Amino acid sequence: MLAQEPVIRLSVFAAVLVAMALLEHAFPRRPQRLSWRRWPSNFGLVAISSVLLRLVAPAGAVGVAAWAEARGLGLFPALGVPAWVAAPVAVVLLDMLIYFQHRVFHAVPLLWRLHRVHHADPELDASSGLRFHPVEILLSFAIKAAAVVALGAPAEGVLVFEVLLNATSLFNHANLALPAWLDRPLRLLLVTPDMHRVHHSEIRVETDSDFGFCLPWWDRIFGTYRAEPAKGQLGMVIGVECFRADDEQRIDRLLLQPLTPEP
């Protein structure tokens, strides 16, 4: 399975992206006016990040896990935890790591400038789940790789985590209207689009809530859960006020945006 890691990840990514695009078109949550102007930059950023990651770490986090596993490194091997237990536990712990990493990127001004590229998207759809500055992606990979080695996470578990993280990022950024009867129980298991959309409000207290990407439990446990935005799903304003203009969505402006302070 590990030999097929790129094929598995790309296949799931493509399938979820197409599914979200079709569902957004059929059941839109909010009216969109800038979609086609934003897509080249959003997809351009993920293309640049993917190339850089493959240059820095051709085998990715799964390769790091396989390397550590072959050498018996990490907490799980030291404790003698069997792989069938270590793999799902690693998925949950890595998801919690991403939650705390997300909070740190909001709290530290320099890191917020990098992460702000993601929040400066004036509309949300599945492509927003790909819109991260390449430097943030590289930093995130370094943090994740260190955690994988420290845990001694099985490579299969890391692969499942990576697939889930990518798929749920596309899902919870989608401009998708889920009926309330489905959204309410689903957000006990997964971060839903309505839940994560609150996080993209221009109101800072709402921006600093609902940090989860895949599992919604961490926001509830650590007190950062917010069920709905103050102005409602249709009334809320998305993005960062001073970076909402059309020309700020060009990929060259996004790459340089971390150098620009907010007024």
Can you characterise this structure?
- The protein is an all-alpha fold and about 260 residues long.
- The chain has one domain (about 40-260).
- The chain contains 14 helices and no strands.
- Helix 2 packs across helix 7, helix 5 runs antiparallel to helix 7 (about 135-150) and helix 5 (about 85-105) crosses helix 8.
- The longest helix is centred in the middle third of the chain and has 25 residues, at about 85-105.
- The model has no long low-confidence stretch (mean pLDDT about 95).
What is the structure about, briefly put?
The chain is mainly alpha-helical and 263 residues long.
Mean of residue pLDDT values = 94
Largest sheet, if any?
none
H/E series: HHHHHHHHHHHHHH
Number of helices: 14
Instruction: State the oligomer.
Output: single chain
Protein name: Sterol desaturase family protein
Subcellular location: Membrane
GO molecular function: iron ion binding; oxidoreductase activity
GO biological process, one term: lipid biosynthetic process
List keywords for this structure.
263 residues; globular; 14 helices; mainly alpha; 0% strand
